[in-house]
């Protein structure tokens, strides 16, 4: 005898099976999304490093290539100090004095742009000077600069970027 009007429903086993299959699918999708997110973070970190390296290279190159005075280099064991007057300005100062040095506190490579030439041994002059300072990189391992003729060679090693060695012609 047939019963009419009764709807056929899912059995408990069919419902449990569908829940298990959905769980497996969501786990698989979650794993794939996490993998993609990790790869994206890795590429973003690489892009940030490349951008930082390019920024340092561009600033140093423009500053030194457009120098309009003698380039003063003070050599030390690990870090050199370089100062000069240039036509390149980040802060729209006309022919600023630029000084590159590595701070002793956190080994940061710092670029100082000012109206007057600065000497690091005169703290009173630094506190009274109108200047802008930018940290180019932290954890600097070495910063060496040499000049031969019209070429300045810069060697920079830092734990946050790849080692950089480049030679820049001056246009005096």
The tally of helices reads: 2
**Residues in helix, %:** 25-40%
Number of strands: 8
Provide the β-strand percentage band.
25-35%
Order of helices and strands: HEEEEHEEEE
- Termini separation: 108 Å
Strand order of the largest sheet: 1-2-3-4-5
Low-pLDDT sequence parts: none
Radius of gyration: 30 Å
Number of domains: 1
- The coarse silhouette is rod-shaped
Give the averaged pLDDT, no decimals. Answer: 89
Largest sheet: 5 strands, antiparallel
Structural class: alpha+beta
Task: Give an overview of the whole structure.
The chain has 172 residues and is of the alpha+beta class. It has one domain (49-169). Helix content is 35%, strand content 31%. The chain has helices at residues 12-65, 123-128; strands spanning 72-74, 81-85, 97-102, 109-114, 131-137, 140-148, 151-158, 161-169. The longest helix has 54 residues, at 12-65. The model has no long low-confidence stretch (mean pLDDT 89).
Please tag this protein with its features:
172 residues, alpha+beta, three-stranded antiparallel beta sheet, 2 helices, 8 strands, 31% strand
Give a topology summary.
Elements: H1 12-65, E1 72-74, E2 81-85, E3 97-102, E4 109-114, H2 123-128, E5 131-137, E6 140-148, E7 151-158, E8 161-169
Antiparallel strand pairs: 1-2, 2-3, 3-4, 4-5, 6-7, 7-8
